[in-house]
């Protein structure tokens, strides 16, 4: 029986040395070593993880602590993920690894957006107003809503936000924009500028901040304020709102 098993291993290009297993090598240097056919251009080298649709992965019930480190490849985004479940973070195709509780992407794809203003907007005096950036330059995951100006990501983590707004009027009043998280009164970042500092009538207020969002209900939008009534420009280089995931 031992001889038969050895013949089967050799026939399949497999070998076992002590506790190590090798494919296309008789001297595996680790628990499992796979040696490709680098010299044969017709042979596609590589290792392919199990391929599943998202719906199939959602339906799986056998994963637990013992499966920590498992790797699969998700081929499509069928099915619907539910917050708090193992597949909560499966929001794009690609490789995922299991951490004992959830599946997490191995190859982090860009998650973010960039929007600009496509119109001139009048800010009423002494009132904090939502600023809408209606032109989406890109919105990879469709998490930005140009109708209400909110960015509501579905992946929890720390996000970098940048925004700018060009405002002008005939006076020199103080004006600013804010990054506001989930409509909280206290903004996460504010840039204040006085109109008299830049030509007396025109200022560009810019603001940046790193904000943690929970991936479900949290969102960030931009508000503008001026002591006097002002108008905003539609200059895309100076009137913009962008955000992107930088870490979890």
Walk me through this protein's architecture.
This protein has helices at 2-11, 54-59, and strands at 14-17, 20-23, 32-34, 51-52, 71-74, 94-98, 103-105, 112-116, 121-123, 129-130, 135-139, 144-145, 150-151, 157-168, 174-181, 189-194, 202-213, 220-226, 230-232, 240-247. It is mainly β and 248 residues long. Strands 8, 9, 11, 14, 17, 19 and 20 form a 7-stranded antiparallel beta sheet that branches. The chain has a 4-stranded mixed beta sheet with strand order 4-5-6-7.
Structural class: mainly beta
**Which oligomerization state do the chains in this entry correspond to?**
single chain
Distance between the termini: 52 Å
**CATH architecture group name of the largest domain:** Sandwich
Mean pLDDT: 85
Number of individual domains:
3
Write the element-wise H/E pattern from the N-terminal end onward. HEEEEHEEEEEEEEEEEEEEEE
What's the number of extended β-strand segments? 20
How would you sum up this structure in a few lines?
The chain is mainly beta and 248 residues long. The strands form 5 sheets. Strands 8, 9, 11, 14, 17, 19 and 20 form a 7-stranded antiparallel sheet that branches. Helix content is 6%, strand content 40%.
Layout: helices, strands, pairs:
Elements: H1 2-11, E1 14-17, E2 20-23, E3 32-34, E4 51-52, H2 54-59, E5 71-74, E6 94-98, E7 103-105, E8 112-116, E9 121-123, E10 129-130, E11 135-139, E12 144-145, E13 150-151, E14 157-168, E15 174-181, E16 189-194, E17 202-213, E18 220-226, E19 230-232, E20 240-247
Parallel strand pairs: 2-3, 4-5
Antiparallel strand pairs: 1-2, 5-6, 6-7, 8-11, 8-20, 9-19, 10-18, 12-13, 14-17, 14-19, 14-20, 15-16, 15-18
């Amino acid at each position: 029986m031992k001889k038969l098993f050895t013949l089967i291993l050799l026939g399949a290009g497999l070998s076992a040395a002590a506790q190590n297993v090798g494919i296309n090598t008789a001297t595996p240097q680790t628990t499992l070593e796979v040696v490709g056919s680098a010299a044969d251009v017709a042979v596609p080298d590589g290792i392919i993880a199990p391929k599943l649709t998202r719906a199939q992965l959602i339906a799986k019930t056998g994963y637990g602590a013992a499966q920590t480190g498992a790797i699969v490849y998700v081929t499509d985004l069928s099915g619907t993920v539910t917050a708090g479940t193992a597949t909560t973070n499966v929001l794009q195709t690609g490789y995922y690894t299991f951490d004992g509780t959830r599946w997490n992407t191995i190859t982090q794809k860009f998650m973010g957006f960039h929007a600009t203003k496509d119109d001139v907007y009048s800010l009423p005096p002494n009132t904090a107003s939502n600023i809408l950036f209606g032109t989406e330059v890109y919105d990879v995951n469709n998490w930005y809503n140009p109708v209400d100006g909110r960015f509501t990501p579905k992946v929890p983590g720390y996000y970098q936000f940048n925004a700018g707004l060009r405002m002008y009027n005939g006076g020199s009043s103080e004006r600013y924009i804010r990054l506001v998280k989930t409509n909280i009164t206290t903004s996460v970042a504010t840039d204040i500028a006085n109109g008299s500092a830049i030509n007396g009538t025109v200022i560009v207020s810019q603001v940046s901040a790193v904000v943690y969002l929970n991936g479900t209900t949290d969102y960030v939008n931009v508000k503008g304020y001026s002591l006097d009534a002002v108008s905003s420009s539609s200059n895309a280089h100076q009137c913009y709102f962008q955000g992107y995931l930088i870490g979890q």
